[in-house]
Amino acid sequence: MLFDTHVHLNARQFDEDREEVIKRAHEAGVEYMVVVGFDRETIPLAIEIAESHDNIYAAVGWHPVDAIDMEESDLDWIKELSAHPKVVAIGEMGLDYHWDKSPVDVQKEVFRKQIELAKKVQMPIIIHNREATQDIVDILKEENAGEVGGIMHCYSGSVEIARECIEMNFYISLGGPVTFKNAKKPKEVAEAIDLDHLLVETDCPFLAPHPNRGTRNEPAYVKLVAEQVAELKGISLEEVGQTTTRNAFKLFKLDQ
Questions:
Q1: 248, 52 in Cβ contact below 8 A?
Q2: Residues 110/136, Cβ–Cβ less than 8 Å
Q3: Above 90 in pLDDT, residue 42?
Q4: What percent of the chain has pLDDT over 90?
Q5: Which residue, 193, 211, 105, 103, is CA-closest to 152?
Q6: Phi, psi of 247 (to 5 degrees)
Q7: What is the pLDDT of residue 256?
Q8: Is residue 103 exposed (0-12), middle (13-18) or buried (19+ Cβ within 10 Å)?
Q9: Strands 56-60 and 87-96
Q10: What's the angle, vertex CA 110, arms to CA 131 and CA 37, rounded to 5?
């Protein structure tokens, strides 16, 4: 039993075979998923997919790359959608210093506003971090984000920062990079961080794990991530699946 905590089945890459992809996931033992919507185009489809599948849920938020496009009405919309029975988290949100579409100060403002919103509706948050680790940690502390906690999505930072995030009530989610030969940090995190603080994800259609690197990622491949975590920890795939699924249910306040 596996829970892929971060999928983009609402991406255009799945328009031709979305239902077949979901079927393959179930056949691989991936029983639960969260579809992440992050702008005006992807949020409605995330909700739609979640509504039409029992064990698929949605997260709604605003991606930092597009922070410059967010208006107050979008924030109100996200707040309204947070009451939907299939919405389990706010996000993805955060900071992205790789792309320069949105100025840093705008990204920070939109990030802070979404944390504030999540605290109002008492929902966990999903954090996107690209080349912005210290600023993200600082903002999470300043905004007391530990009140709701959440997920450090597709974590690629150090063991030390992971522990700081865990102290703030965040789970560390490992994706495809933990399977990459030269990805030292995710492997170190998988080994060092207790399984009770870990989640697994694909971030599909991006970051397909080895041996599928460079192809379209899909939820069925989260099994490859879980297998790598199991190997690094010297435990069974079943234990990784059961514990990370239990962690996800606890975070998202789902009944198991």
A1: no
A2: no
A3: yes
A4: 99
A5: 193
A6: -60, -45
A7: 65
A8: exposed
A9: parallel
A10: 80
- Is the distance from CB of 200 to CB of 229 less than 8 angstroms? yes
pLDDT single digits (tens) 174-233? 999 999 999 999 999 999 999 999 999 999 999 999 999 999 999 999 999 999 999 999
Structure tokens at 234: 């010297």
What's the whole-number average pLDDT of the chain?
A: 97
Q: How many residues does this entry show for the chain?
A: 256
The letter for the amino acid at 13 is Q
- Rounded to whole angstroms, the Cα distance separating 90 from 255 reads 19
Q: And the tokens for 30? A: 């991936």
Retrieve residue 41's tokens.
């185009």
The DSSP string of the chain is -EEEEEE-TTSGGGTTTHHHHHHHHHHTTEEEEEEEE-STTHHHHHHHHHHTSTTEEEEE---GGGGGG--HHHHHHHHHHTTSTTEEEEEEEEEE-SS-SS-HHHHHHHHHHHHHHHHHHT--EEEEEES-HHHHHHHHHHTTGGGT-EEETT--S-HHHHHHHHHTTEEEEE-GGGGSTT-HHHHHHHHHS-GGGEEE---BTSSPPTTSTTS---GGGHHHHHHHHHHHHTS-HHHHHHHHHHHHHHHTT---
Please report the pLDDT score of residue 255 as a whole number. Answer: 84
Q: Which two tokens stand for residue 210?
A: 């080895």
Helix 222-233 vs helix 237-251: crossing angle, to nearest 10: 110
Condensed to tens digits (0 to 9), the pLDDT of residues 149-174 reads: 999 999 999 999 999 999 999 999 99
